[in-house]
Amino acid sequence: MNALLEVDDLVVEYGRGRRTFRALHGVSLDIAPGECLGLVGESGSGKSTLGKAILGLAPVTRGSIRFDGREISTLGRGARRQLASDIQVVFQDPYGSLNPAMTIGDTLSEPLLTSGLSAADAKSRVREMLDRVRLPSTAIDRYPSEFSGGQRQRVAIARALVRRPRLIVCDEPVSALDLTTQAAILDLFIELQRDTDVAYLFVSHDLGVVRRVCHRVAVMYRGEIVEVGEGEQVTKSPRHPYSERLRLASPVANPRAQRTRRAEWLALREVADATLR
Ligand code: ADP
Ligand code: MG
Q1: Ligand whose nearest atom lies closest to the CA of 20
Q2: Most Cβ neighbours (<10 Å): which of 57, 73, 77, 269?
Q3: Is the pLDDT of residue 130 over 90?
Q4: Which residues pair with 7 in a beta bridge?
Q5: Is a pLDDT exceeding 70 seen at residue 275?
Q6: How far apart are CA 159 and CA 154, in angstroms?
Q7: For ligand 2, a single-atom ion, which residues have Cβ within 5 Å?
Q8: Residue (of 223, 194, 128, 173) closest to 38 by Cα position
Q9: Hey, what's the torsion of the CAs at 72, 74, 78, 80, to 10 degrees?
Q10: What residues are in contact with ligand 1 under a 6 Å CB criterion?
Q11: How much of the chain exceeds pLDDT 70, in percent?
């Protein structure tokens, strides 16, 4: 397999001296072109840190990140800016991630104009993108505040896609949405991947969500990847005790089944902690 992204033995540390905190302890993974790799793990396990390192926003202490065979963890600002046409991001918060003072049309055309497209070409690309994410073309002249959370997330997705990237880091992109909207946005991610062959690193704390969109899933625990495998296998019959604990932590509707699940989760907590330092 020719990987699009290869992360090898990546260490990220925040702070310095005695205050140094190691957030990633030698993480390795790869993503193929057009693949969706899920990244699950509890809050604070280092998922966003890995996403940020790929985007050039976290301090890499050791290890490598190769995109299309090229080392990108050491790029200077200019080269990093050029890479933005290949690697994009969608964040969790559709309210905080859009500039409230810019129309949707300006938000979407800005990166195109910066990269040298003519105003006319940018405009037609923006229309095409709005259509792809199922927003009406009238959205062009409107502001983020005029849209719901789900619609704003569609705008954020359109903005990530507008330069035709090959990889999008999706950091909990549906976690702030209600369940019905979540389902619609997940379907959109799947459809866009099918149509454009873009790859996703899809971060979520929700196993149901990653099962639905991801081909493979990696499980992160305290800055380490403890298991990687097929989505179905990792989310339904995980091999590692910590992955199993994550599975048991996601609630089920039946109260009796939930009580059993909770008891199993508590019992496994000890086992998982003993296995991992
Ligand atoms: P996740 O996305 O899985 O919730 P994060 O990657 O955000 O986890 O955080 C992993 C760990 O790194 C946490 O303990 C967090 O407190 C710490 N951390 C994240 N960002 C910083 C930062 N800028 N400075 C110091 N510590 C940080
Ligand atoms: Mg996070």
Answers
A1: 1
A2: 73
A3: yes
A4: 29, 65
A5: no
A6: 9
A7: 47-48
A8: 173
A9: 30
A10: 14-15, 21, 23, 41, 43-49
A11: 97
Cut 0.90: pTM above it = yes
Q: Reduced to 3 states, what is the DSSP secondary structure of residue 225?
A: strand
| CA neighbor of 262 nearest in space, from 247, 273, 277 | 247
For ligand 1, atom 13, the nearest C-alpha belongs to 44
Give 5's strand partners.
Answer: 31, 67
Tens of pLDDT, residues 206-265? 999 999 999 999 999 999 999 999 999 999 999 988 888 888 887 777 888 888 888 888
Determine the distance separating the centroid of ligand 2 and the alpha carbon of 127, expressed in angstroms: 32
What gap in Å lies between CA 10 and CA 184, rounded to an integer?
Answer: 34
* Per-residue exposure over 83-99, b if at least 16 CB sit within 10 Å of its own CB, e if not: bbbebbbbbbbbeebbe
